[in-house]
Structures are given as structure tokens and as C-alpha cells.
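REQUEST ID: PR-0412
SUBMITTED BY: lab tech R.K.
PRIORITY: routine
TASK: structure prediction, single protein chain
INPUT:
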Amino acid sequence: DGDEEDGGGPAIGPSQISRVIYLPRTGMQKGQGQTSSTAIFVGTGRFSGALWEMSLALPEDRLREDRSVPLAEQTAIPAECNLMAKLPPGVEVTVMEPSPSGRMLLLGFADGRVWVVPFNNPGSHVALSVADSCSGAIRSINVDKDENTMVVGADDGTLSTIVLNSAGLMDVAEKQAAELVGLGQRALARRGSAVPVYSEETYRMLQETMPPMHHLSHESWDLPEMEIPGIVVLSRDITDPAQYSIQDQRLKSEADNAFATAELKKKRVRERIAIMRQELAGLHSKNNSLVAHKLSAGEMTIDVDYIKHLNKEMERAIEDVKFETAWEAEFHERGMQKLRNYFLGRLDFERVEVLAFRSPHRVATFRSPSMSAELQANLARLHELIFTADQDSEDDEATNGDLEAFVGNASGGDAAGASKRSMSAMARQSDGISGGGTLDSSKATLMSGAEQRELRRQQRQLRKQELLDLEKAKPSDSFEDPQDVEAISTAVATLGNCMLKTSDAYQVPESQRMNAEKKRRQMFLLEESMHAIKTEFNNRVLALRDFRQQVRQEAQRDIALLAELDQQLGTSTNWVNGLLDEEPDAPEEFPERRFDFSEAELRAFGRTLKGYAASSPEPEARQSPGFADSDEAEEAMENADGAAGEDGRQRGQAAAGRSAMAERRAARLNLRRSLLQGAKDPLAVAVAEEHEARLWHDKVKLEEHLRHVVDTFNSTVASIEKEKAKLESDLKNADMKLLVLYEELLTLNDLEEKDEALLRKSTKCRMDKTAVMHQIKECQDQLGEKKTEIETWHNEEQSLQAEFTELVGENSPFIGALLKIYKKKVKRSKRKKGVGDDEDFDEDASDEEDESDIESDEDDDDMDEDTGPPPGCDVQIYESVIDLREKRLDMEDALQEIQKAVEELKKTHKRLLDEERRIDKEQRQTDSEIQQFQTDKQRKLNQVPIVISLRMSQVQCLDLSEVGETLQSERRAGQLPPQLNHQVVFTHDGLKRLMSRITELHQEIKEVKANFKQLQKDFRVRKKEKNGAMELIEDLRAKFEDIQMLKFGQTVDLDLIEKSAPNKYVNELQEKCLEAEKDHRKRLSDWEKRIEKQKRELQKITCENTSLMEQIVSMGYSQMQLDAALNARIANV
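STATUS: complete
OUTPUT:
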């Protein structure tokens, strides 16, 4: 009972047995370990995914009982099932059959697999995939008696024949079972959990015992020719081209009947027409035999209107026929047009072959397909990129030229001019100093001291500026000559790298780096070049074909003239016979005219079709040859007209050109000979001889001209044929190169993703560095601005110090105390200038003030409050010093703010420099990765095989010392070496160029040495000039110091004197200040007088107020006395 059998797992869905086979007890099976009959089954639910075995052995008493009880009344007993082998989970078993010998079990699955399981070891099996996994369920498995061939049929329509090594499979299974039994795993072997044994020995044993594969064909199968009950007849392929279906047979029979009816009708009409023609011919003959009263052709026509009516009927019938055959004609035209577009529409040039005259030379065009629209679009974009790149390179060259000219002028001309100007200015200054000045005495007397000091200051500033210009024009230690840089770059670009690309030390130059896009562009350009070469050659061949037509026409005229001359001379020119005849198997000279047909060719084709359609000609049609067929008569007339027209054209052509003169001359000679033919006098004989000599001369010249024209054309064909052979070789090499480029493109496509990633990384580094460089430049500009502000504040501080010295006076006794007050630090709030220059408190004044208070705890002694002016010092000077101190403190605060900003900028600059170094490091790392990637890419490209065409003479041994004596002897003997492992492919021109480069290098070395010696001489000359200039400068400096010692007794810093000395601007400011002070003093005196007057008035009012207050007090006391008196009086009452 299937429901009571142990499935060994949880039930999924209904548990049912789907396939079962019965194995009876036999002697062979006993030897295999089976002691009784068994049943092997597969199923669903708890039985899925496994192959089960159930013993059918029963006890003797139960057997006896079962024999006595009817089968319908017997009860089921539980049975034990064993797991034989595990099957693929979730796959239905569609076929389960034992082999003919009973040694193996054949299993077919729904996914197209076939298992062969030996009974002696079910854990081992052979798995085959023979059908489609989705729609190729196995439906039938059959094995021959020898168990060497297995045929499998599946739902996908496949029928597979498999060679089965049953003996080897059984041996391997027995060997594995023996090994498992030796390890104590017999139980595992019975349960199907054995591990397959795969080894070289097993593989070798299976190979040795593998039976041969028999090549079978379905054509040799004995298939039934007709349907038999129970057998499905296979339909055979129809291979007979004359075979047609029933429908085709019906249509063909209808067409044949219609054609036969039409032919019969046409036959009857032709018979009547033939009779009527005979009667008409008889009437015409009678009419012609009459002597008088003959009828004309118009009178012979009986009914003109009827003839017109017949013509109209015929035209209408023709139109009807055209209308009926319009669809078929359009169908064939469309089909022909499609074929033409498919086979010829995509061609720029067909194969056109041009033959020489009576020569084996021939030349043909290349069958060249047209470039596709995609290729043309890619080429258009590529040419646009090339044009843009050329324009950019031209612009760069122009810019570089202008820059080099500018640098040359700046480094050469400007520096020389600046040095000359500085030397001349120094000489003028020295002359002026030694001569006591070059100014006129009148000007000197008119100029004041301040103006003279200003003039000297300007001269010093001019000299300082010239010195700075010279310092800037001086090249740095790292400066490189532009000519040397250009020469080095040219050498690097043109010298070339002779290192092999397969070398480990080879690095791919940046200009030679390759990617998929560049490789595609190379392929596009190569295809364009190949197409252009083919097009140019094909145009030449087509021009040669046209020239051949001209040569043929000229040769035909010459041959016709030669025939006339031979006829007159009674000779023959045999070598011109067949000169212009075409070869029997010659190709068409104008294949593009294959669809152009004349009316005569169409009529001939129609007759051919009629000849195929008619079984035999009608005897009645041959009775009247004059009027046999109207079509034939019309065609004969057209042929006659065409022949006459052709003869006329030939005669016209013969009369034209160079042969016209010879023809006219021959006509005159013929006329003269005919006139003198009957004469016998000596003059006639002489004229006849002269005529014959002229004819022979014309014949010889005409033959020479004909030979020259034909030989010239044949030599042209031979040269172009030779050129085409070279072009074919080059184009074949180009095709092989295109294949190599395609292989390289496939390799580059695999590496394109990594290449683009590295390119993006490098681009990001460049963009980041550009941004950082812009930030660094901005930071440097801001630092320069801050430096300028600091210098400005320092100058103002020095001006403020000079103002303090001038205000106090250098010899003032209070200068020390006032200087201490001036330098004193005072607590003050932070202020800033607002809109309209009003002073407002800063937002962070309190915070900064607190910080300044904390930081200034150590300087409390210096920040005491002012105690007033020193005794005896003028108050106005003291207050002026206080104001100057406030200005100084404002300057210090501003300098502190600027210093803080400078510190922040320095920190930012340092951070940006660190960022730049990091980006440079990352860029170098990226460049190294790109270089390594390019090297690896080049190595992979080196593995692509390249085809190179070489001649035997080009194979040479480059290094005989490493090859050996045997190879050297072979080379001396003129034999090629057996191997080319020690050779390298190198062009002969390149080898010669390298050999000649040695001599060129020696010459260049000599030139460089001579140039170096000349530069050393120039350097020594310039060094002497520099030493002379330095000596002159030292002399001038010594003279300058002597003058200072004589004038001041010591060396004085002129800049310091210039800064400390009052200038014109300071004097003007001092005068303005004195006027302002005088005005202010006057205004102060007026205000003091007004204050005194107001004080007196205040004193007078105060006195009056005091008297009034005293009166109020006295009146108050009186009021108090009166109140007291009133209160006392009230109390008494």
C-alpha cells in the first residue's frame, strides 16, 4: 500500500507513485545481491526526490493463505522501502526503464536529463543533458542488445544517439562499491550516498573500453513508404526541382489549358490570314500584270474606315492586355528592383574587366561597396575634430612664437637696454658728482633747499627703479634657454625610442597611449583610405574602358581602309584578322547596361519563349515565306534598316578624322586608275606605278599607326595590371591590419572601464589643483595688499614720530617726559569708523576689552592714568602730544587688525600649500597608476598576433654571434635559419637610418662642442665686462663715501635723512597748522572774554538770588511765629 510505506521525509502534497518497474528474481540478480523479486518506483509527495526499492518477499504461511483466498478478499500488509539513490529535487521522472540485460536502470527527467544507474552500485550514475531544459522532457529511451548505443527522444523534437560504455560503467561501479565495502560503508552504498570516484585511472579505463561511434544518417533508415496502423510515417524532403504540389498542379493545368486554347485560336486566325494573304498576293500579281488601267495602292484598299476600326480594336486589345498584365509586370519590376538594390544598390563600383587586344593582359576594377551611413557620420565627426585640432595647433604655434619673441626681447633687448641706461645714468651721476653738478648756476640759485632735496630724492628713486628692473631682467639659476628647450623637445619627438615594446623597462609615451575611441578612429581612417584607393583606381580603369572604345573605333576605321587598300593592291593583311574580336568567355564590358534592352533583343527573347512553348512549327506557316509572320517581317525590316544605318554610320565615321584624307586620296587614285586602265602608253604605265607605290606607302603607314595604337593601349593595360597587383597586396595588408585593429579594439573594450576611471581620477586631480592654485593666488594677492597696508601704516607712524619730534623739539628739556607720555599705553575702548566717518563702538568691543584687560594685567604700571603735563611744560604741547598718542594707538590697533588678518591668511596659505602637496602626491600616484595601466595595456596589445608580409630577401640575421656557428654557416650558404627566435622584425630603411645616425651624432657632437667653446669665450668676455662695471661701481661708492666724510664727517644714510628732513609738503602743512593755531588762539581769546562777561553776569544774578533767598527765610521765620501764636490763642479758648 503506497500510503503505508515509509517515505523517509515529510509529505509535500499528495503522496503517489508515478513510475514503477518490477524486477523478477533471476540468477543474474542473485549474483548482484538481490535475494527476491523487487519493485523500484518513484513518486510525489513523500516519495519525491528519491529512487525507492521495495522487496516483494512474503512468508510461506502467508503465501499458502494468499493462494486459498480470492484476490479481491486479500488484505494489504505493510512493506519496508529502502532508499536506492537520490534524484534531482523538484524534477519529475518521465521515463523509467531497465536495460535489456537488467544491469542498469534508465531514467528520463522533465528537464531533458538522462541518468544511467547501475544496480550493483546505485550511488554511482551517468548524467547526460540531451534536450532543452524548458520544453525537452524525455519521452522515450531505448538501448540496443549490446548496450552500446542509446537513442533518446524528447518533446522538443530532438532524437539523440549516444554511445554508451556499459562495460566500463559497470567496472567503475563495482570498483567503487568494493572500495566502500572495504571502508565499512556498505550501508551508505545501499542508500545511494556513496561519493563518486574520479581519477586518471578511471578516465583512462573508460576511454580504453569506449566502443566506436557509428555514423548514422536518417537517409539509410528503413522508413515505411505508406501509413501502417500503429506507425507514424515521416514526411520525406522534396529534392526534385520538377516536383510541385497539388495546388501548383491545378494552377499549371489551368494555365496550360488556357495557353493551348489561345494557341489553337491563334493557329486558326493565322490560317485564315495566310489564305487571305495568298488571295491578296494573287490580286496584286494580276494587277501588276495589267498593261493599262492598273489600280493604285489606295484604290486597292477596299474599306479604309474598316482598317482604321481594326487598328483601333487592335490598340484597345493591346491596352487590355497591358492592363491585365500590369500587376504581374509591376510584381516582376518590383522584385527586380529589390534584387538590384540588394545586390547592386550598395555598391559604388562593380567588377568591370578591360581586356587588351590580342594580349593576355587584362585589368579589372575592385568590387567596392559603398560606405555605410554610420561610417560616413563617424568620418564627418572625425574630420571635424582633426580640423579643429589643426586650427588649435596653429594658434598655439603662433602664440608660442609671439611669446618666444617677447621673452627674447625681454631677456635680451630689454636687459641690454636697461643695463646700458643704468650704466649711462651712473656715469652721468658720477660725472655730476665729480664735477660739482651739471645744473646751471641760475637754476641752482632759483631752486630752494626743499626743491633740491626733492630733485635728489627723485634721482635716487629713478636709480633704484632701474636697479630693480635690472634685477628682474637677470635670469634665475633655474632659467633655461628657449632654444635649448626647443632643441631638446625636438630631439625627444623625432629621435624615437628603439626600445622594444615587449621590454619590461618600456614606458608608453603619452602621445602613443591608446584607448578604444582612438582605435575606432584608426579603423575609420583606414577604411576611408582603402575606399579612396579603390575609388581612384576604379575611376582610372573606367577611363581606360572608355579609351578602349575610342581605340576600337579608330582601329575599325583603319582596318576598313586596309581592306580597301588590299582590294586595290590584290594583297591581304592577315595579322589584322580577329584583332578586335572578343574572347568567347570574355566578361561584359559594360555590366551596368545589363538592364538596358533594345526592341530587337526583346523580340528575339519573345521568339525564344515561343520556341520553348511550341512543340513543332506549323507547316502552313512555311507555305508563304514572304508573309510568314508579321513580327518576323517587321523585325527583318528593322534589322535591314539598322544594318543600312550602321553601314552609313561606319562610312561616315570612316570619312571623319584622320582616315578621311586617306579615303579621299584612295578614291582619287581609283578614279585615275579607272581612267587610265585601257591606255597603253608609257605615261599611263608610269601613272599606274606611281599609283601603286602611293597605295603601298599608305598601307605601310596605316599598319604602323594601327600597331602603334594597339601596342600603346596594351602597354597601358599591362602597366595598370601590374599596379593593381601591388594595390591588391597593399589592400590585403590593409585588411589584415583592419583585423588586427579589430582584435586590439576588443582588447581595449575590456579595459575601457578602468581607463575611464583613471581618466576621471586624473581629471579630478587637475581640477582640484587648478582650484587650489586660484585660491593660493588670491591669498598671495591679499598678502601683498596687507603688506602694502603695513608699509603704509609704518610710513604714517614714522611721519607721526617726525611730527612729535618737530612739535616738542629735539633740544626741549621736556622731551623725555613727553616721549614717555607719547609711548605710554592707555586703556581705551575699541572703536571703528562707521558710515559718514562717525565713531561707533564695535560689536565685540566688550569682549576684546575684557581680553585686553586680562592680557594687560602685567602692564598695569604702564597703564596708569595721566597725571598731567610735566611742570613747566606748555599745556598746548601736552594736549598735542596726547592727540598724537591717540593717533599712534589708533595706528597700533589698525596694525594689530592687519597682523591678525595676515596671520589668518598665512594659515590659509599654509593649508592650501598642504592641500596642493596632497593633490600633487595624488596626481603623481594617479599618473603612476595610469603609466602602469598603459604598460599592462601595451603588453596585452603585444599579445595580439600581427601578420607581416616579408620577402625571403628581407629575412636577415641581425646578431650572428648569439646564433651559433651552424646558423652562420647556413647564412653563408644562402639558406634561411630553421628558427627565428633570435631575430627581430625591423625595416630596412630604419636600419639604414640608425646606421647613418651614428655619423650624424658625431657631427652634431662636434657642432655642440664648438658652440660650447664659443659660449665659454662669450662668458669670459661678459665676465670681464661685469668685473669692469663692478670696479666702476666700487670707485663711485668710494668717491661717494669720501664726499660724505668731507661734508658730514661720517657716512650718512641718505634715505633716513630724506625721511627725517622736512619736505615741501611738511612745510606747507606746518604753515597751515600755524595759521590754524593763530585763528584758534584768537577765537579762544574771544571765548574767554565772553566767558568772563558771563561769569560777571552770573555773579550778579547769584547775589540777587541770595538776597531773595534771605528774604524768603526771614518770611518763613515770621510765618512760624504767627502760627505758634495762633495755636496758643486757640488753646486758651
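NOTES: The chain has 26 helices and 17 strands.
REVIEWED BY: pending
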